[in-house]
Structure formats: structure tokens, C-alpha cells
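[SOLVED] Need 3D model of a three-part complex

Original post:
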Amino acid sequence: MNRLPRRLIAALAIGPVAALVVFYAWPFGTLLAEAVTGQALSETLRRSQTWDVVWFTLWQAVVSTIVTICVGLLPAYVVARFEFRGRSVLIGLLTATFVLPTVVMGAAFLALLPDSLDRTVWAVIGAHVAFNLAVVVRVVGALWEHLPTDMEHAAATLGASRWRVFTQISLPLIRPAITAAATIVFLFTFTSFGVIRILAAPGTRTIEVEVWRRATQLGDIGGAAVLALLQLAVLAVALVWSTLAQRRHSRALALRPEAVRRRARSRGERAFVAVAAGGAALVALVPLSALVVRSFSTPSGWSTSAWTQLGRTEVRPGIRVGVDPVDAIANSLSTMAWATLFAVVIGGVASLAITAAQRHGRLIDGGLMLPLGTSAVTIGLGMLITFDAPPADWRASWWLVPVGHALVAVPFVVRTCVGVLRSVDPEMTAAAATLGAAPVRAWRSTVVPYLWRPLGVGAALAAAISLGEFGATSFLSRSGGETLPIAIEQLLGRTGTTLQAQGYVLATLLAVTTVVLVIVVEQLQAGRRVEP
Amino acid sequence: MTVPVAGHPRVADLDVRDVYVSFGDTKVLDGVSLHIAGGEIVALLGPSGSGKSTLLRVIAGLVVPDAGTVAVGGVAVTHVPTHRRGIGMVFQDDQLFPHLSTLDNVTFGPKMAGESRARRDERGSVWLDRVGLAGFGPRRVTELSGGEAKRVALARTLAAEPAVVLLDEPLTGLDRELHDRLAIDLGQLLTGVTTLLVTHDPDEAAVIADRTVQLSSL
Amino acid sequence: MTVVVVTLAACASDGSDSGSGTTDEVAVGDPPAVAPTDSTDPADTADPSGDTITLVVYDSFPEADTSLNDALASFTEQTGIGVDILVAGDTGTMLSKASLTAGNPEGDVMWGIDNTLVSRAIADGVFEPHVATGITDGSIPVPEEFTALTPNGEATPVDYGDVCVNYDIGWFAERDLDPPSTLADLIDPAYAGMLVVQNPATSSPGLAFLLATIHEYGLEGWQDYWRALGENGVEVVEGWTEAYYERFSWAGGGPTPMVVSYGSSPPAEVIFADPPRDDAPTGVVEDTCFRQVEFAGVLRGTDSPEAARLLVDFLIGDEFQREVPLNLFVYPSNPAVTLPQEFVDFAVIPDQPRTLDPAVIDANRSTWIDEWTELVLG
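Solution:
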């Protein structure tokens, strides 16, 4: 009786749902159709190269996941259980590393490693670990924080040493979080694109890179579509397995609402915390420092020339090599602005619809999350082959790239907004109703005002995502409309030249911008906790 | 009243001397000393927040005191890590391991001591019997009632054959009937075991313990 | 309306011979007095003057400051059609982008698709068929072997040349080493690590070089040759500009003394030499040369088809073709143009450049590129 009118909910929902159907479901369907019909399917499946690529993608993702989990468990424990100076800085640092554009992380590792390691798989795995450490520390740490310390104490009184407490008690209990973190890390490393393109040797390709290569260099759209389908199949299997595993291992824990952390007491404990936290911080900081340092390294020694002479060098009259940074930055900024606008509008409206629609809201929520699970390259390829004929002849339109970015950013906007909107006390809306406000008015005055802050957070996240987006943009960008990540990739390939140093310069600029955006997010979110 | 509990190889005494503990500027324990003879059950009374639990944790090795010593059976354990002290503890909220069955919870201590599965399962069943939960072995601990969980926690601690047993407010929060029943059972099960029981209820202390002391007097 | 069209077409072929004639200028300069009434496609017969069209080129085409660009400026003066240049990367990349955007192109005219790739461009529907009027009316006698490559008139041949391995004469002299003279020499360990080639998937000289090796070693033997080249330390980059201006020791100051380039690259090095010189600093390994013919065409789906056609007509005319040798270092397909002296002196035209049947190239290109990628890039 005090429900919002269905017409309002429908009106709110129609925009996001339509956008999802037109820009995601339709291209996705076209891609599926393209993959399944014609001889591309049998040709591609019969080619041994296909299976080589699938195998490589699989094993490097599994190894990356395992290594990341192992490296991340110790910092996760330390962050969960201990209070130490710089704890929040460490968490912020790891988060910033996670949000960094893939090309920046690739560039950082390229800068860091000596030439012999530069192009090997281990460089790639290293970059993956650095990237995804935040996932393990935050996801596993979050559950670990809520594991009663007394349970570990009880085990100790029963004769379990520290190690056995870990293996017998802690590990089984945090297993659902480890599975969740592992799934996320696997998802990201399996669909790795930017890191591979920058860091790996030319012949080393993941499915994502192969899809891009076949489509854009060889013109084999059918083959590319089949590969995209294979990738989705593997991801679907991984997702199903993970859901089942998590369900099986979820324990009804007596979860304390608040974490109890303590300072490290003994010298041994202090050393332990320092090593774990310091190590994690180094994993994040060292590559980025290497990036900045290398931007000052030119073939003629250390200098700032890469910074000051950023731009195209003329080798012959009218023929220039290099990339115009002003162009690239301008393109990136304008794309980012539009993408953020689209994401915020669609995401904001969607969050209102989701919270208002309650049960059906979950459907919309789930649907909007789909683009996250689909690789960026798949989205880009789908849009490329779908929007090439009237009435949807949009391939050349300037707004297609921002829309692609928005697709991936909307889930983040929705997550931040829905969380806040849902936590608004329904009593408030009820109170407004008793004061004479009609349902819509009551809702509008008690719920909607809470939207602004999380929208701000969502906007900053969308901006960061758009700036760093590389996969979908690689398909959709037009000549002369290259964004920063694409420019960086082109420059970094020129080993041992000033151009490569310029690549590092642009990567540094991109990294700094992303970090600033993350700081904005953290500030906005911190402010939120103070509110009732 | 007393059915001597079989299988306790050591009947050790507990000696606590001059323990000081402060958290930041707050003095929680100020030079506390306490002696419990081997096989004696002692109840420690005191209001909430007076540091009773902290004393238990110092004895168990979970809190490191600023000063003072703890000795079991004449052996100083102040700097020995918890898992080697041979001191068992039943926590206020039981702290049963939710991922293990009831039997596996009870046999956890023997498992840590390296006993074979057959032997420790047998020992576990015996203890479950003793606490009146025969046949509960395969049950999930999350399905146990409050009273049942308490008994399992006790069985778990005792099955590890500790030299000293510590109990932190074992009956707090249980309803009257359960409380009384368990109090009697506790007294029987702990006979002959060096025990320090912390509570704020003097009647409970009287039923279970051989001797009662006030924290303020230590 | 048709009168205007004919006048414009005539103007294009005449104007390129003698610069703008006064009568032609007047005819073109007049805005259309009457709206089109009986044409089916208004765009076809609309007056293109005042339009600006985009010429999509590969990355070795100068964007400004050369006589080639001056010629384009002259076109603008004559027709009122502005020309913007869009550099799309090396030819392979340019084609891929064009294929993916066929029907909705990034520009209006494309310059530079060569015989190794043109069949793919045609199959992908990149071009709107148009052969320059200079060829169709016979006023420009472009060799028939060139026009035969696009039998349905999809594009117009604009230049030709040979893709050959170039070497740095001074580099070899310093080390007292004889430069290689055959393809087989390139896999000789004496020349290890001295060659940079381009990826045939993204670069047309790269593809041409691959075809040269297939011509020499046959369908079954070329794979072993490339395996040996790989073991001999061959370097692969994505495009010609990167290879020539960044990796090649003479032109780019890079570490590698041999590069896949053009038989007509040495003249460029004489002309741009600083301090001036009168001998070529680079040489050509004739045995490695593969004949290349380049085309220009109207992109299908352009908004200004009429202006685009006019530009294609201009590109084959004398005024533009005269500037081609010294700016693009290829031979003009317009035989009426006299070559500059440096070209005559220093360009290498092999007697028997290698060629492959276009049908064979078309049928096998993807497979060959795939195989090559696996062999060489791993």
C-alpha cells in the first residue's frame, strides 16, 4: 500500500534494461551466431594453434592464481589481525594497484625487469600477482577479520602449534573466501589482454589477444568469434565450479560484527608484521617506481628529454614517428568524460530501480553485472560486428567507445549506490509517509538524497575504468582517435629508443591520474561512514 | 560424589606469582598471586571487567604479562608457548570448530598429540559418553543446543588430558534448569583435575569448586 | 546537371596536365544553378567543391611539407575540394581497419593497397569500383599488367616498385664483410642478427618479402627457410617505418644493417643526405626483390563519392605522379612522367623481380600468414 507505483519503477528500469539489451545482449547474440554458423567453427577448432592458445591461457591463469593466493595469504592475515602504523595506507596502495590500467602495470614490469626476463611468462605472472594481490588481501582479509581469535586460541590450548592452527582451523574456515578470491583472480588473469600485449613475447598469446589479432590483423571474424566463445565456456565452467565449491564450504560462523585487531607485541611478532606488510607494499611500489625511473632513461643516458620532447619526431619531411601525446590525452579525457556521464546516469537510475523493485531488482542487478564477467575484447568485438549496418550503423560514431566503457563501469556504480540505498532505514520513509507524503514523495525525499555520495564514488571509479580501458577500445577506436592506453602500447614496443621512454612517461601520467581518482574514492567513502 | 576420572597421568599443581598486566595506561592485574594444589578445583569470583578472564589468559599463555611467573607442576611455563603448556581452556562461547564434526572436535587434542585415528576416536567416544552425549559423534556442531555445545567443549578440553583446566564463565547465560544440571555434572567430571574456574556467581562456585577465592583478595 | 558532372570530369584530366586552365576554373567555380532533377543519387551529382575529403594512407606517406602535399594543395585550388590526410599505419594495418569499417569508412579515398593485399580488399568490399578516367579514356597509358590486377575496376594502379632487402654499405665496409647477395645468404651464420623484417600480417613489404621467399623455396620449402632465418636472429617489427627509421642502421641509427625496404630506397638516402653526397650509402640485394604494384580507390560508403572520384583521377595525373618518385620512392604508374635524375642514377630495378600469381596469393595468404606467425613469432 505504501509501495511505489509500478509505473515509476518501470520508468526507472526501462532505460538501463534497454541499454543492456541493445549494447550488450544484442552484440553478444550476434557474436554467438557468428561463431556457431559457418565453417569458422570447424576450421578454428581443428587448428592446433587454437588449442595451444587455450592451453597457454589456462595454465598461466592457474599458476598466476595459485601464486597470488600464496603470496597474498600472509598480508591478508596481517591486515586482518593486526593494527599497525600504515595499515590503511597499505590497503589503499593495494587497491590503487588493482585499479591501475593493465597497460600501466605491463609498462611497470617492462621497466622493472632486466631484458632477459622481460618477455618471459614469468614476467607476465609477476605482473598478474602484483595486480591481483589486493583481491586476496581484501576478500580473504575481510573474512579472516571476522574469524573469532578465540577459536584459534582454543586450538592452541589443545596443543596445536601456530602452523597447525593455520592449516587445521584457519585455512578450512577461510576457504570460501579463498575460493571467491581465486575465482576473481582467475577471471582476470584468464582474460588478460593489456599485460600480455605489452609484456609477453610476440608469439605468446592468450585467447583474448588471439581474438583481437584474428579479428583486427587477419580479418578472420568468424575465427575470432569462435575463440571468444571458447573463452566464455571455460569461464562459465570456472564460475559454476566456484559457486558450488563456495556453497559447499560455507560455514555458519559466529561472525563478530566488528573486527578485533591488536598491535604486534613481541619483537618476533613485530618483525612478522613488518615483513608481511612491507613485502606487500613493495610488490605494489617497486614496479611503479621502476616505471617512473625508466621514463628518465633514454638511449643517450639519463635525461628528462622523454618528458620534454613528448610528441612526434620528424624523420623526413612530412613523415613522423611516435604518437601525439596531446591528441591521445585529449581523446582519453573526452572519452572518459562521456563514459562517466553515461555510467553515472544509467547506473544511478538503475540503482533506484533496483532498490525500488526489490525482488525483480535482483534480475536487473544481475543483468547489469554480466558485462563484467564477459571479457572486454568480447564486448568490443561484438559491438564491432553488430553495429555495422543501418538502422544501427554506429561503428563510426564517437559515442560508441564511451558506451563500451560505460558498460563495464555501470556495475561498479550500481554496487556502490545500491549498497547505500539499501541501508537507508525504511522507517524513515515510513515516517515521511505518516507525515502526509505520498509514497513517491516520501521516497524521493528520504532515499534519493543518499544517492549523491555513492554516485560520486561510482563516477570516480567509472573515470578510472574508462581511462585505463584497453581491450574494447582496441577494437572500436578509429585512426586518429587513439586513447592513452593504445598510444602507450604503441610506444612501449620500440625497445631501447626515446619513444619507449615516452611510453613510460605517458604510463606514469596515467598511473598518477588513476591513483588520484582512487584517493578521491577513498575520501568519499570514508566520509560516508560518518553519516547515520 | 566423586567418581575419580581415569586416565590423568599428571596431577600437577598451578602456581601463579606476582602477575602484572596493564593495557596501555590501565592496570588490569596488579601483582596477582595464586596457588592451586594438584587435583583441586578453585573458583575465582569477581565482578565483570575485574580482570578474571585476563588472568586465565595469562595462565593459558594467550596474554603475555608485564611481570610475574606461571608454573605447572613446579615447571615454569611463563615463556612456553600455549600449545606446549598442557593447559586446557573452556571458553565462554565454547569456540567449537564449525567445520569439524562433534567427534572430530573432541579428538582434536589427541590428534595434535599424534594419536592414531582409531585410538583417538575411541577415546573421543568415551568422553562423549562421559558428558552424556553418547552417539553424538557424527553430528555437526552447528546443530547442537547450548547445553550440548557446552558439554562438547568440556569433553574436548578434557580429552586432551591437560595438567590444568581453565574455565571462563562456563555456565553464564544458560537457563536455570540447564545451569543447575550442568553445574553438578561439571563438579563430577572435574574431580581430581587441577581446575581454575572463573565466575561471578557464588552459588555456582559453591556447587562446583572445592575452594572459592575473590580476585580482589589476590 | 549531367553537364556539370562531365565538365568536372574533363577538368580533372585536363587540369592535371597544365595546371588550372582558366576556362576549367570558371566551370568548376560556379555553384550549381539548378538542383538535380533526374539523377537517382543526389550525392553522385552534387557539386563536390567545398567538400573536404580524407585520404587514408600508409605511414610512409608524408602528411605535410613535401612537393607531394603541394600537388594535393593544387588539387584543392583546382577543384575546391580539400584533402585531409589520415595515416592508418602500415598497409596491412590500414587494410584491416578498412575491412572492419567497410561501408562506413574512416576516409574517402585510400592510397597504397598493393597487389599482395588488393584481393582481400576487394573480397571485403572495401572499395567502390572506380577506375580513374585517365585510364578509361586512354589518355594515361598505364601498363595493362597493372590494371589487369583489378579486372573489375575496383581500384586504380598508382605506382609500382620492388620490395627488396636493403643494406648499409658503410656498416659492412667497416667490418670488412661482403654484403649478402642472395636469399640463401641471409640464413648464413656470418650474417646472424643483421636483418630486420616486418610482420606480414600488418605490413605489405613484410608480406611481399614472405612471398619472395615462397617464390624461391616453394610451397613446401619456405617454412624451413624461415625456421633458419629465425635461428639466425632475424628481428620482426610491425611496420616499415619502424623498421626503416628506427631499427635500420643507416636511416634510423639503429643496430641492424639490413632491412626489408624498396629497390628505390637508396635514392632517398642520396637526396636527404646531410652532408650532401653523390653516391648511395645503401645497397639492394637484387635476388630478394618482389614486384609490388600499389592501388588507390574510392572507399565504399563515403559521404562524398564524387569528390573522391575526382581525387583518384588526380592521383594518376601527371601533376601528382611527377612527385611520387622522390617522395614515396616508388615508380609512377603513369608512363608519361619523366623520372628525376637521382632516381635514374641510384634506384635499383632488377631485371627479373619475383612475382606470384595473384590468384595463388589470394587463395593462400591467410594460411601462409598463420603458418608464418606460428613459425617465427612462436
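Edit: Residues 154 and 297 of chain C are 7 Å apart (CA to CA).
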